[in-house]
Amino acid sequence: MPPPPTSTPVPAVADFLRDVARSRVLDAGRVERLFEEAPPGKKWPATTLADHFVELGALTRFQADKVLRGHWGGLILGPYRLLCPLGRGGMGIVYLARAGDPPPPGADAAGSQLVALKVLPPHRVQKDERMLARFRREGDTGLRLPAHPRLVRTIAAGEHAGVYYLALEFVRGRTARQYLSEDGPFAVPRAARVFADAAVGLHQAHAAGFVHRDFKPSNVMVEPNGRAKVLDFGLATFRGEPALPDSTQLVEQGYAIGTADYMAPEQAENPVTVGPAADLYSLGCSLYYALAGCPPFPGGTSKDKIRWHRTSAPPPITQLNPAVPPGLADLIAALMSKCPEDRPASAQEAADRLAAWAEPVRATAAQLSTALTTEVLHQAEEKWYASHLAGEEESSEDSLVVPVDPIEPATASSVPSSPAVAQPLDWVLGRTRLPKWAFPAATTALALALALAAGFGWVIARVVARASLF
Question: Membrane-spanning regions, if any (predicted)?
Fold first, then answer.
């Protein structure tokens, strides 16, 4: 897979070798041996040598591209080596990373633990200190959650040179949100299996005293065998937890926290006192989205969505997907009841009821052998570079903190049917994105400046020429 096109000058081979060693992805001795053993036709230029290192598995394409661009720093974060990005999120980039030293040539790479490393860039902390509070809270919660196959495990939380990170269990697959975006609505058996598994994960968290408060399709990982795990407890609350100091509060009075498309009515009113029933409401909204292909209340602003969740009923799921059995439609409606007491008694009860429509459990996911690790890495790199070159952005299914207005009566005409509008993130790879008009405006200004300069030069030349006549 070739690297993305770049205007960065190709470094000298000696500089490339030096920077690989400086990155500490490979030690200087191994870099020297790799160069000495390289065939003569693959030693120059540096891009060809980099391709050779990638072919050998000594570097990943992402690592090689970063070093070729002169960005050799930051490929090591504490005890982890960044292999390639897996995706962007509301707080940073998630990388596929390896714990410990790289395996020696010919060794089984499966012996080194792969993790999903969630990184919070310093500039995000500088913009909003609550980002750091939420990030730390997610790490603390993850380490306190019970170990269970339906929950993504948090392995470690740490900080290195001012950069905060969370090491999470690496789960092959896609989020339920990605499945929906790429493949369309779920078939009933698949939706029932995925969200039955997710309900079991929620039940384990609830039993340990936690309420997720941000359950949604993008926080459900679906493995290749169809099983699912719940992730991202960054907005979770612990029942009976004392009030936090002002500097670490995630919300202020009069604000709602969560994701508007899936937020329970009582969570919008008071996110601090919600119980497990709020997650059941979000489970119902997520099931609705998985089967209908759109959230219960598409379109509108975040405040509109919150108001509709409080006061309006969405179209029946069977109206949007006639294949949904009546019993499953009744369960979704019960999960989305406005009154918490009218919802199922627990997430486990919801899981048990979903099992009636769920597809059979398939074989356990394959262990990450060396060959499978290589395949996962290549797939991740291809997806990242394809999206990066195409300029794709994440959808705006982002968690939010918004002021909540008093409840207003809703009319039938106030419920929209248009699709939700995507709001792109304002950063890529830790750099601030300029407005779309910036480059055309700069180009126009430069052209005008050159034209004025040329005209001024012509006038001066004419004056000098006329003066020379005298």
Answer: 437-461
Cα–Cα distance measured from residue 237 to residue 206, given in angstroms and rounded to the nearest whole number: 10
Measured from the Cβ of residue 82, the count of other Cβ atoms closer than 10 Å reads 23
Q: Which two tokens stand for residue 462?
A: 């004419």
Q: What are phi and psi of 159, to 5 degrees?
A: -140, 140
Identify the pLDDT of residue 134: 86
The residue ranking higher by pLDDT, 350 or 463, is 350
> What are the beta bridge partners of residue 428?
431
Query: And the tokens for 177?
Result: 């949100």
Annotated binding-site residue? 118: yes
Query: In what order do the strands lie in the sheet containing 220-222?
Result: 174-175, 220-222, 228-230
CA distances 426 to 88, 89, 117, 162, 235, Å, are 11, 11, 21, 22, 22
pLDDT digits (tens, 9 = 90+) for 173-203: 999 999 999 999 999 999 999 999 999 999 9
pLDDT band at 409 (very low <50, low <70, confident <90, very high): very low
Q: How many domains is the chain built from?
A: 3
The residues annotated as belonging to the active site are: 214
- Say if residue 279 is in the same domain as residue 356: yes
The larger pLDDT score, comparing residue 420 to residue 253, is at: 253
Q: What string of H, E and C letters represents the secondary structure of 303-339?
A: HHHHHHHHHCCCCCHHHHCCCCCHHHHHHHHHHCCCC
* b (16+ CB within 10 A) / e for 428-439: eeeeeeeeeeee
pLDDT score for 157: 96
pLDDT value of position 9? 80
CATH number of the domain to which 308 belongs:
1.10.510.10
| Cα torsion through 99, 104, 107, 110, rounded to 10 | 10
pLDDT > 60? residue 348: yes
The domain that holds 130 is classified in CATH as 3.30.200.20
- 211 CB contacts (<8 Å, ≥6 apart)? 205, 236, 237, 238, 239, 274, 275, 276, 278, 279
